[in-house]
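Weekly sync notes, structure subgroup
Attendees: PM, AL, DS (notes)

Item 1: joint prediction request from the bench team. They want all two components modeled as one assembly rather than separately. Inputs as received:
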Amino acid sequence: MEDLDQLRDELLTAIAAADGLDALEAIRVAALGRKGRVTELMKGLGQLAADQRRAAGQGLNAVKTAVAVAIEARQSGLASAALDAALAADRIDITLPVRPQAQGRIHPISQTFDEIVAIFGEMGFSVAEGPDIEDDFHNFTALNIPPEHPARQMHDTFYLPENAAGDRMVLRTHTSPVQIRTMQSNPPPLRIIAPGRTYRCDSDMTHTPMFHQVEGLIIDKTTHMGHLKGCLIEFCRAYFEVPDVPVRFRPSYFPFTEPSAEVDIGCSRAGGELKIGTGGDWLEILGCGMVHPKVLLACGIDPNEYQGFAFGMGIERIAMLKYGIPDLRTFFDADMRWLRHYGFVPLEVPTLLRGLTP
Amino acid sequence: MKFTLSWLRDHLDTDAPLREITDTLTALGLELEELHDRAAGFENFVVGEVISCEPHPDADRLRVCIVDTGAAQTQVVCGAPNARAGMKGVFAPAGTHVPDTGLDLKTTKIRGVESSGMLCSEREMGLSDEHDGIIELPADTPVGASFAAIMGLDDPVIEIGLTPDRADCAGVRGIARDLAATGIGVLKSWPHDPVPGAFDSPVAWRRDLGADGDACPRVVGRAFRGITNGPSPAWLHDRLRAIGLRPISALVDITNFVTFDLGRPLHVFDIAKITGDTLTMRFARDGEEIDALDGRSYRLDSSMTVIGDSVRALGIGGVMGGEHSGCTQDTTEVFVESALFDPIRTAATGRKLGIESDARYRFERGVDRASADWGAEVAAKLILEICGGEASTLTMAGETPAPAPAVTLDPRRLETLGGLAVECEAARNILDRLGFATKLVAGKIEAMPPSWRFDIESEACLVEEVLRVKGFDAIPAVPLLADTPLSRPAITPAQRRVSFARKTLAGRGMLEAVTWSFLRDKDAALFGGVGDDLRLVNPISADLDVMRPSVLPNLIAAAGRNADRGMNQVALFEVGAAWRNDTPDGQQLVAAGIRTGTSGPRHWSQEARAIDAFDAKADALAVLAACGAPAAKAQASADAPVWYHPGRAGALRLGPNVLAWFGEIHPAVLKAMDVKGPVAAFEVFLDAIPRPKAKSGKARALLQVSAFQPVKRDFAFVVDDAMPAAKLIGAVRTADRKLVAAVDVFDVFTGAALGEGKKSVALSVTLQPSGHTMTDAEIDAVAARIVANVQKQTGGVLRG
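Output from the run, pasted for the record:
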């Protein structure tokens, strides 16, 4: 049936030439619609003799299928081209800045404190706290600093007015009173670190009237200076994240410890730049010692049975050393440029397992 | 405390190199603060002799010298008027760095004549401004010798820091004793035999101290006559100059020397200026005045010890002598005071008068109890040697105080407390070398502290003595292990909440600040003020004179400072204390924050809006939620303290318990603080947040989700303008507690069409069925109940 081949070619040519979905639909209706040419031919099959009908039917079906497939293919091609054209027209400038999302920061003092907790926590210390406004007993007397002791002058204490009971409260000059409160209210063994604000009436390039300290205390029956060294050497190396930093213990004096020591870490000052590590120079970072028997007695602990060590350090100082912050006074200025620069993104709490400073 | 190496060697026989000595000082607790090598830079300068000195062929003022430098003969062109053959001077060869000019010398031709090196003036050496001629050295100075050596500059100056307990090391001899105890050298013997008196002292001592005899327990003195108070000898000059003291006259220099050499302050009175024949240790009369040796006049009180003659106070005991009886160059008869003064009283006197002196420094730490007596002998020996004349017999009053009682050291404590095992004999040897009188009693060391130690009061002190001599480096470090195999929480749940608050606020884009705990009274008054118990007696400045009643004012002030620096969008928070009173309970832990400006920077895709109370409310609610407070149950009430805007602020409460305040800061407060608004602020009281109930475990309640489609319906109610949205929401919720799953407010407006004093609140209500999908009839029924309940509880009507 030559006319079927011709019909098919004719329709396929028209389909290929269709320039849009509407034209294609018109072709489909004209060919396969209710009154379409192919449909009409199908209707005419019934008038043919049976043997002719079979052959003609097969041929007509083949044409119908070919046309339907071609229409579908052409349809999807046209749709895809239309989408391409639409998308091509729908462009944005992807170099434009994103919508702003403010990023907050944690103050270096908080970060440093979290790092300190992460280290001492692994050694079994827990955090204890106490009031900033202290009485004379907790801040001085119980710490073996009697009223006439020169150490009280060393401390540049802030005083509050005498109260009705004749007591003069002070702004604590160290967080040691927390040690006293802990020993008074908890039986040994004890392992605490006491962080917090401390105050001294002093203000210059390297002193601010308020600063932060963390102190540590361990009381039991066996802890000696060897443990003190082990504990603080471990701390220094972990905190500064310099595994081989030299640590030196020098005899010193504090009223509340005996023996007493100051701790230096190794550093280099070559070229005017401070670098913590092996460098031949030393940098003082903390004070420590074995708790003075009089301090234990003042807290109701028998010094013949119990002993232990205490240490204290300035949080700002070790933060400045680790993070390279040059000026103490800037810690308290709340300058947003400073906070953004030296502050920490609050991603996670530092741990030794996952790493301290991000 | 400063001294030179050669001075130390007067007391310590040692060959140890300087570095070892200074390291040992630090290891002993006598921390090296500074090592000043005065010879540094003078290495090339040597003594040269001018062999010949001829006029320069081409210059009138220059001469051509041949200088013998010991190693060679060198030609130098020299312009100094005093250059001449035979003289000895300081020669710097070519290549030497000249301190004054900062240049390196080069061999050069001066007007055609070669010159290699230089003969130096004092100015060129950086020693003084003297530049009239070159330095002339004595004829017997050895040619080729190091200039630094012959000037005594090769004697390094050592400065150590002294802790307040080590009074005994405020003299070179004490330092030498400590060093000798380590074995680095041997403490030299120190003869201070009694100097016989040639006549009876014309001045006698008396103590008139009543019951407070401790103020001056012992005083010894002796007179000298026929002395000459000229300049002191070169060795004494050099010592004093090396440690930064100015030589004055032989007598003054001797007292200064003994102060630094032996830690024994002395005072010398000109006998001619003493009225009467008695010097009395007594307390000053209130208001009594004295002109002291520092040229200033001081008003004394009755707590201060003075040395008085029959007319006036001649000195402030332990602190400073008086002008009146001071020695001059014409003085020929003097009386030397060697006394002991009470450390506490001396410190208090010095502090009250504002006098820092070498005497006070030592007396307030404690001066050797035996030294009142030997001080008078040492003084006699030096005065007779340097000033001539003769010494009287001794005169004295009071008693030498008893030494500190013996302390017993169980040698095992060196290991169990000190962490270092030391043999009993070795420990005892150390204590002996430090001057303790020791004996063994039942395996323990009984140690009597020497008269110069004031810091030995318990076994722990003896442990420290032995350990510091052994060096803390010798103590083996022992790991400090936790007593559980795994770490336990180091912080309490309450402390953990503080950390949650911090991280939450930083996560919301705020910067954590740490501001002062104090502020100025004027600003405190804007935030409720403080009682007298929170006013500092001695503030560091008038701007920081009271404890803060709120964390906000310092943050608001910081916002002002940031605005001054051009940053107008401030988002700061602080977690810290605020005070209600001076008791421990009066300290509250607060998480506070402020936001100013707009919600963000100007941006091409979205418009920034002004910060308002809802920003602060959101921050506060976020903190409460992070801290485990039932934030959804907290009621907002429109009452906030006076520092907030009266119409744009509120409280978040659980019943009567205020968890937080939030809102916009009162414009008048901002004006008073000179900060541009609006400022949205919040204060969350962390201590007020209920502690979460201890649960049996960490398991969550079983999740129950409905299998059926939720339905959303919108309602708009017209209510009175004053009707809180929260009440409307509550009415919707309680209309059907089981079905109403969520109520969102999506529109609030007022307008003339609604009528005066009315507002429209549009709500989107989510209904969540649990048993079956809701039918239209069921939805209509719930909607009707909602409308009815709102009508009943708020008077609101559905907008048509």
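Discussion: The two ends of chain B are 93 Å apart (CA to CA).
Action: AL to compare against the crosslinking data before next sync.
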